[in-house]
Amino acid sequence: MKSTYIDLMVKRNNKQEKKMSKENFEKQIRKRMEQLDEINKHGIFKELKGTVTDFNYDTKSLTMTFEATKFHENAFGIMFGGSLAGMFDIAFGTLTAGLGDYSVAPTVQLSTTFLKGIPTGATVRTEVEAVSTGKTIMNFVGKAYVGEELVGSASGTFMTPRPFKKFNTEK
User: Fold this and answer.
1) Which CATH number fits domain 5-159: 2.40.50.840, 2.40.50.100, 3.10.129.10, 3.20.20.100?
2) For 86-95, what is the mean pLDDT?
């Protein structure tokens, strides 16, 4: 039997509803938390020591904490600004996992505003939320705190993943 346009749209909407259900959101966030544990064994993820501390389906939001370790100290004795940008990138990227059945969403744009220096040794809390989640692009905003003090903010745009080849330089 040939599928009609309406049949295809109903299937697509059912698939999107499945992706956006509260249960699937929580399942995907927990899956991403496990992946972060594995990723944290290597490189910048390890050094940022990111941990998901809260997430909310209804508000499409996520909270993560990171450690401003000595590894991130710059010449001024405070955390390097690029580390804060990395924290936002990881938090936004982690939230994308709850918004669909995928674990990687390429960053299209990331803008970070640095409001206060972050002392080495501080715990940085990022609170991020989805502003829009379209078929091809997702937009996020976030704030970073040390204690209750606002130290930075960010906005980011991410590509909604489609099947794509993993970048590989090996021949």
Assistant:
1) 3.10.129.10
2) 92
